[in-house]
Amino acid sequence: MEFSAQQIADFLHGEIIGDNQVKVNNLSKIEEGKPGTLTFLANPKYTHHIYTTQASIVLVNRDFEPEQKINATLIKVDDAYSCLAQLLNLVNQARPEKKGIDKDTYIAASATISQSVYIGAFAYVSENVKVGENVKIYPQVYIGDNVTIGDNTILYPGVKIYHDCVIGKNCIIHAGAVIGADGFGFAPHNGAYVKIAQIGNVIIEDQVEIGANTTIDRATMGSTIVRKGAKLDNLIQVAHNVEIGENTVMAAQVGVAGSTKIGSHCMVGGQVGFAGHITIGDRVNIGAQSGIPNHVSSDTSILGYPAVPAREFARSTVMIKKLPELNQTVKQLQKEIENLKKRLEK
């Protein structure tokens, strides 16, 4: 499909600087822009590319003022990144929609399936499963007994959802994710470990996205809960009885130990590790590779291992760089003290 700058600006409520009739039929990164494509500038680190990009149209923030000549047509918008997301969603919605149930699926007679679903080949739908409207279940998905899946949810290939779990509306679960595997519960007994039955479930509320190969364990009792609007990246481990708050986002390889509660609107960097049985407040920002051994108050930014306030960590990092110099200074002072002692003895 092809769109003019004017059509795009009208859709995004933007202001055109340049040729309003130039047309594009694809998207590109700003540093790899080609004629006939649209790109965007949101991160100042990429500003220099806007003067050389071959893209025909560039989305920019309204406060952007060029310092050199730009060949591309600009469309100024309130938030270039957000507007790009709108365009990407528009392109994605234009793809042919998958519908129907493949003949090579297994669906238990007791399952309740809406008329508008898509279920791909070799998917397995167990007893008493309830599947809502417009749900898409891609090939080789396994859905255990008594699972409920809300309207408009997408389960990509190879997703596994164990028995009794609840998946909300408008969720996206990517390939290889496992929802509801047993929590890591074992009791020491006579020099060995005895498995503790994990009889709870997992509840995924509405509008949650879960990345590829992420695992969310079922609760020992009660529920492991991912609240509305949370976004989890690939390769994340969420242990039993954890609760993740509304609109919290987590980057890849985060590990959350059992019974930890994470508040709403938190931002968690990659490879962060949470100890078990702690509480993280709302609107907490946590830098990548931090270790969180204790409770964290709301409206805090922390970094490091163990994590400390971000500014304190930055000051410590500066001091660490100066340690070799400080070490030499201390050695020099020690020598001077020894020399003074010898003089005093004489």
Description:
The protein has a 12-stranded mixed β-sheet with strand order 8-11-14-17-20-25-28-31-34-37-39-40. Strands 9-12-15-18-21-26-29-32-35-38 form a 10-stranded parallel β-sheet, with no helix packed on it. A 9-stranded parallel β-sheet has the order 10-13-16-19-24-27-30-33-36, with no helix packed on it. With 346 residues, it is an alpha/beta fold. The protein folds into 3 domains: 3-93, 3-Layer(aba) Sandwich (Udp-n-acetylmuramoylalanyl-d-glutamate--2,6- Diaminopimelate Ligase, Chain: A, domain 1); 100-311, Hexapeptide repeat proteins (UDP N-Acetylglucosamine Acyltransferase, domain 1, 3 Solenoid), CATH 2.160.10; 319-345. It contains 4 helices and 40 strands. GO terms for molecular function: N-acyltransferase activity; UDP-3-O-[(3R)-3-hydroxyacyl]-glucosamine N-acyltransferase activity. Keywords: Acyltransferase, Lipid A biosynthesis, Lipid biosynthesis, Lipid metabolism, Repeat, Transferase. Pathway: Bacterial outer membrane biogenesis; LPS lipid A biosynthesis. It catalyses: a UDP-3-O-[(3R)-3-hydroxyacyl]-alpha-D-glucosamine + a (3R)-hydroxyacyl-[ACP] = a UDP-2-N,3-O-bis[(3R)-3-hydroxyacyl]-alpha-D-glucosamine + holo-[ACP] + H(+). This is UDP-3-O-acylglucosamine N-acyltransferase.
